[in-house]
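debug: dumping io for the single-chain case to check the tokenizer round-trip. Nothing else runs in this session.
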Amino acid sequence: MAPSPKPWPGSLAPFGFPVFRAIWLANLASTIGAMVQSVGAAWLMTELTPSHHLVALVQASVTIPVLVLGIFAGVIADHYDRRGVMLAAQITMLIASTALTLFTLFGAIGPYLLLSFTIAIGCGFALNAPAWQASVRVQVDRQHLPQAITLNTIAFNLGRSVGPALGGLMLSLQGPAAAFAFNSASYIALIVVLLRWRPDYVRPERKPILAAVREGLVFCAGSSPVRRIMLRGFTFGFGAISFHALLPSLVRDQSFGSELMFGFGLGAFGVGSILCAICIGDVRRRLGTEKILAASCVSYAAAMGMLAYAGHPAVILAAAAVAGTGWVAALTTLNIAMQLRSPDAILGRCLSIYQAVTFGGMAAGAYILGLAADLISLKAAALIAAAWLLATALLLRFAAPMPTRDEGRVDP
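debug: decoded output
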């Protein structure tokens, strides 16, 4: 049970819970660091190799661990103290990021070693994500859960707006090693907050790991609303990852391309995300989840079409902001829908299965679209992603509609 909150107005009510506020601020710092590291890794890969495919795999290397390890991470989140799981994940990422910094600083990094380190960081993220998302129910009252999820999304996208611009500046002034060192330092705040947090913990009944995985899979497979949510997550993730996978190459291959421009492009994506996150709650209540997802796919497809024909920096920035609104509107809507339809006893597993499916779509999209960029062209890959988003939004509206408001909802 979350502690009694101090009054905060409206959608900011979760900030009345001191634990939520402290973790939110620490996560913001960590997210900024992660975005700085992401910019550094993506741009460093463009300097290490001319292959669009390998550049796109930088994004895939972060999402693949969620696909492979995510379900087991969900079992860990349900069977063990989620605070302790989060601590272990943060320390894992701190060690991997520090090693990446040192190898880069001494000039010992190559394309495949870089991918190895980003995979290691992705493993830490895969372990952390289910425990972190499931712990929100302990940080705030259930009635404030949708607002808390939205505020966490805002923090993530604040980091997306500040981090990339800061990363681009660091790259231009100090090089990638400085960006990686900054990320290493950013984990410390969250580690300190987690060490000081002492939530009530009731040890759950633990089952063998494969039996526990099966329990989560059986629930998700047997729930029609959950199946449809996960299918929509996979199809959106497959097309939406195109922005992050293709942007480094698109910027590099333009005459105005630079690491600073790349950072500003990701920063514009974050600004669009924040603006959307601020108002998405009210819009979702008026329009419903199906219309929100359709609008997200259309806006994202438009952004990829703009990027395919970008001939000026302003076009890239405008397209990035539009993509950011679609990204947040879709993924926030899907995340809330999944949380409200997952029993507390298997919440970590349900969220990890959803994340494995969604990030699996992202990993597959990054791989296939990067391959298309090498075999056909960057422009063609961006247009393929746009066509996919439009086609799936139209077809799945009828084949796999989002659950209605009360369909499949789980009581607290």
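debug: round-trip ok. The radius of gyration is 20 Å.
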